[in-house]
Specification:
By secondary structure, the protein is an alpha/beta fold. It is built from 13 helices and 12 strands. It has one domain. The strands form 2 sheets. Strands 3-4-5-2-1-6-11-8-12-7 form a 10-stranded mixed sheet, sandwiched between helices. Strands 9-10 form a two-stranded antiparallel sheet. It is globular and about 80 Å long. 45% of the residues are buried.
């Protein structure tokens, strides 16, 4: 009996020590990425002041862009979203809306508002997508193409658009997204500077909830008035203005948001388009591009551009948000497992030896270990097995530094492009930075464990994202 108790004590002490050491390393990595992000942001802010994106609007060197919009049951937001895309400033643009077998009025809304008529289109026989029922073009807006097809999921819909557009670049955009008018002129910058090597670039996603949107344009920016959307504002600021900027600084960007990314059409076709058996196609496609281009021995770049912005409606209820985050976690695990050969593999440079391993440690295992820590360490302290200092250090390394890194994101926002410009909004952002680490962060560890269980059980459902539509109060 005494031997078993002694073994339990040793195990708990070892676990506590391991968790603390783990989070020391993870937070040192995060802090380093955030500091690198400041240098990258400083360069971008200074450059944006001297090179307005519209100066060469008439330049013949801008490559054509096909904006591919997969839409499944998006009747609530599809018209405003397409209006936003039709108002984009870009010389050569095609909007390709792919109705992925919607069961609501998505296609009817498109017909009513954009005067669609059927056109004959050469549909490639090898297109990796479900059956295409028809192709339509707007008689009002010649650049608007609508593809009606059998339901096959988001990846399938994206593939249909990619294979039907004739543009050398395509922009993958969610149908609940509003894009700033000059965003494509900014997002295409890496392809103008490095036309031989640029294969992908991503912009910033911001929360549209509570913003005033008219005719597909964000007229005024407001913070959401309810808790969950506000906490997600904080998450998005930290992820884009700290995480992805820092990774961009070391040429290690492995994730471009599926709601707003620009890709070389030919390169994505070469790897067979988006995979049908993944539920986080945005993460998967970028990792596969890294892997394929390195295996082919081709020089390439994947970039993050912090100025172009797209606005998206985020979940306002815990039920819908939990469903979304479980799906994200399952997809992340699936992508990591599929591309595990890249881990610690020097063949893939910094991505294989540093970025991918730390991503797995922080984003995949981090929430799981943290969740166990919240249960085991307080119990061990309560039964006088571990010193209370263990839990205090653990709490500081997770929650305390979490607040600091969130405030780091707010500082980056204020210092740079500053869409939330009133002192009251900044104070609310700082409050959200505290609030998300007391309750919301712990809830996300539970969601991660649920996502892992779903992955192990083979759950592959997408889950419906319920929309209220833009300009709807979330009070």
């Amino acid at each position: 009996m005494h031997t078993a108790i002694h073994l339990l004590v040793q195990t708990l002490v070892g676990f506590g020590t391991l968790v603390i050491a783990y989070y020391l390393v993870i937070n040192a990595y995060y802090l380093g990425i955030h500091v690198l992000a400041l240098f990258e942001l400083d360069d971008d802010v200074h450059e944006s002041k001297w090179t307005p994106p519209f100066r060469d609007f008439a330049s013949p060197f801008y490559p054509g862009i096909g904006v591919v919009v997969p839409a499944y049951n998006e009747a609530a937001t599809i018209v405003e979203s397409i209006q936003s895309m039709l108002s984009l400033n870009y010389p050569e643009l095609e909007i390709v809306v792919v109705n992925d077998g919607s069961t609501d009025e998505t296609l009817e809304r498109l017909r009513e508002n954009f005067d669609l008529e059927a056109v004959s289109a050469d549909i490639p026989v090898d297109i990796p997508a479900e059956e295409i029922y028809g192709v339509y073009r707007s008689t009002t807006y010649e650049e608007l193409l609508v593809v009606d097809k059998a339901n096959g999921g988001k990846s399938d819909a994206l593939n249909a658009g990619i294979w039907l557009t004739g543009m050398p670049l395509f922009c993958a955009v969610d149908s609940d997204t509003i894009i700033d008018r000059d965003a494509l002129l900014q997002l295409v910058k890496p392809f103008l500077e490095r036309p031989e090597t640029a294969v992908a670039s991503g912009g910033v996603i911001r929360v549209a909830n509570s913003c005033t949107i008219e005719d597909g344009i964000v007229k005024s920016v407001s913070l959401p008035k309810t808790g969950l959307p506000g906490l997600q504002v904080m998450e998005y600021l930290r992820a884009f203005y700290s995480g992805r900027l820092g990774l961009n600084r070391i040429k290690g960007l492995i994730l471009i948001s599926g709601a707003f990314g620009l890709f070389q059409t030919g390169a994505v076709r070469e790897i067979g388009g988006y995979r049908h058996d993944t539920i986080t196609e945005d993460f998967d496609i970028v990792v596969r591009l890294h892997r394929y281009l390195v295996d082919e021995g081709r020089e390439y770049t994947v970039d993050f551009v912090p100025e172009p912005v797209a606005w998206t409606e985020v979940p306002a209820t815990r039920r819908v948000l939990g469903r979304q985050r479980r799906r994200w976690y399952r997809g992340m695990v699936e992508t990591v497992v599929t591309n595990r050969q890249m881990l610690f593999n020097p063949k893939y440079g910094r991505v294989g030896t540093v970025v991918f391993p730390f991503f797995v440690a922080a984003e995949m295992f981090g929430p799981l270990i943290e969740g166990i820590g919240y249960i085991v360490l307080p119990l061990a302290w309560y039964f006088d097995i571990l010193n209370g200092g263990f839990f205090l250090i653990f709490f500081f390394l997770t929650t305390g530094l979490g607040v600091f890194l969130s405030w780091f994101g707010v500082f980056s926002e204020v210092w740079s492009f500053n869409r939330y410009d009133s002192p009251w909004q900044i104070l609310r952002l700082l409050w959200y930075g505290i609030l998300e680490n007391f309750g919301y962060r712990q809830w996300k560890t539970v969601i991660a464990w649920q996502g892992l269980v779903e992955y192990l059980r083979g759950v592959d459902s997408w889950g419906a994202m319920e929309r209220t539509g833009f300009n709807t109060s979330d009070e």
